[in-house]
Structure prediction request, 425 residues.
Amino acid sequence: MAMQLTAEQQHMLDGGKGEAFAKVMKTLVMYGETFGATEMVPVTSAKGHLVTSFGLSVMKPVYGLMDQLIEAGAISQQPFSVDPKPLDKNVPSNLLQNIFFKVMYSKQDDYDAQLKKLGIISDKSYTCTCYMDEVGNVPNKGDVLSWAESSAVVYANSVLGARCNRNSGILELFGSIAGCVPYFGLLTDEGRKATWIIEVKTSKKPEAQVLGSTIGMKVMEDVPYIKGLDAWIGTELNQDTRDFLKDMGAATASNGAVGLYHIENLTPEAVEQKEALIAENAQVYVIDDAELARVQASYPCIWKDQSAAPKLCFIGCPHLSVNQLHSWTQRLIDALKKQGRQKVAVPTVFTAAPGVLEVFEKTDDYQKLKKAGVVVSYICPLMYMNNPLCGKMPVITNSNKLRTYTSARYYTDAEILQRISGEVR
Ligand code: F3S
Prediction:
């Protein structure tokens, strides 16, 4: 093999720790060689994160694989968090959907038990926003990670300055088991250089989800260096800014395949290295109001009846922060008041991490939301929607990731507010 391994890694590959470890290492070596890596580097973060959180009945090979790993003692060297669960009985669904969910996710309990044996942090560790303080899986700057969840990878790389490739599910678990990952791409200084300069020249603060989608669809898997955005979101990584970057990043990662972005005067590497981060001959893309409007108008709506009244609204993909839950509550209560309404006009679900909900549920705003008829939940809206029954429902969302992967229709925050408050049907 072309890859230079340490004695310990070679020992594992040669079967010194048993067949399961050998297969794990062989897979990582093959993965690395595909991308031109010549060595492995240690995973240095305290915790891992897995993307596969759902007990889909059709994923039999995954459960068999997990069993083999557990039997062989090939468990994660780091405790890990996992993406959100697919089901919550509090989220509106009809009888048929409930039966369908039960069959579709019939392996959920078994799979949860496997995750326990493999090293999940706790029952509350199911979320895509594992990097929030309330969840407690916050990598340090410079940490090497073995994660796969695209919205978490782009956040960890860009906002926290950790280093992680856009791995796939299972491969990220293998990196956590072996304790090393192939060294290429976003782990390297060279791979973290920007090959695009994005010039934000809008007349107002851009919508995070539309800006992210616009950038993602242009640069795809490349690294952008974004100029002009600090004029709208500031030069301090406070909670509002982090929330904006979370949502923008998830859209760059799902509408394109961005794993890292730099923002002039704001994100850690851009603050330190400034334009030295920009590769020679970087291409330039100017984003103004017209470009954002063009991109938003290009989103297809695949509802059968384009004028159907929405039956459900999801807010919180990626999961909301405590700050965002409060902000949405205040905006919603004000909007309902203006319409003379007590309750939302469209069944609405706000999603957030279990740890975030635990904090929020102790506040007055939670009671206000409940009174307004809003459900708060820990689920992944994508998992809820990704089946033929829910796919036919007219669902609206402010998430560009959910729009991309399902039949949900995208609206900006302001447009969503108009609909759930009853101002616009
Ligand atoms: Fe998170 Fe599920 Fe959206 S994993 S980013 S809530 S698709």
